[in-house]
Structure prediction request, 293 residues.
Amino acid sequence: MRQSIGVLLGVIMFLLMVPVFAFGASDIVYSSYQSGNWEIWAVDARGNRPRQLTRTMEDERSPAWSPDRKKIAYATNTGAIYVMDRDGSRMRRIAGTSGRCDHPAWHPDGKKLAFVSFTYKKGEDSDLWEIGVEPALEVKPVRLVSREDMEGFPAWSPDGNRLVYTIFRRGDLDQVIEDLWIRDMAVKTDFPLIQGGQQNFQGDWSPDSRSLVFASNLTGDYEIWVLGFKPARLIRLTCSPGLDVDPCWSPDSKSIAFVSTRSGQKQIWVMDSDGSNPRQLTGGPAEKKDPDW
Prediction:
């Protein structure tokens, strides 16, 4: 499907389940309000055995699997970034992340995290930073991207050479505009990937590096889109009157998890990578969000 949108291309068996906590190669972590505040949960790719990983007085959100799937990074409403083991044990705050931090994203080497830090000043501003995960590497964070507008939702390419992120800005009529940009880490240069005066956000690389999935209101409703690189193509995957956002790829690139309100409120859904066979993974009265596969 071709759309009038500015697309700029740059460098272009489940494990055996055991009681309490058991994680297979395809478990999805997400945030849920089921216990009365936002906590981190996990569920398998068939929607079975949902289990709660955090139990604190704070709100936990934006969970992210480490590349080896042994750890989970997440943010809290206190503005700090934490890392815990995949079963929810050994929670540890990453030194140097406090105040207003969010959206942790693991570097493919598993040693570093990119994250968003919001600035205390008049207006809307945030920058992208990077910090080491292991205690010996937890020195002062390094700024990756700093622009006049707000940056968010960082995601590393599988080779670690590029970082896709969202730029949030206000239009002439004070409307929200979000564009997808890429930073080339080799030359420290940023360039626009998708622009068009709409909201294009939450980009996520496919593990095979062939595509980028993202959310957009290009057609007036929030849907999931995929941008293919070779050949270049832009395809809408969802067509629902509800909200479809927050997409992420499965480890084998064959499926995409996302958040949808098509069943009445925010729940975790999964579809094939071509948009077919959508199925709801989570249910109940509480909202769910922030899936990572």
About this structure: The chain has no helices and 25 strands. Residues 250 and 293 are 5 Å apart (CA to CA). The domain at 31-292 is CATH 2.120.10.30 (Neuraminidase). The two ends are 27 Å apart (CA to CA).
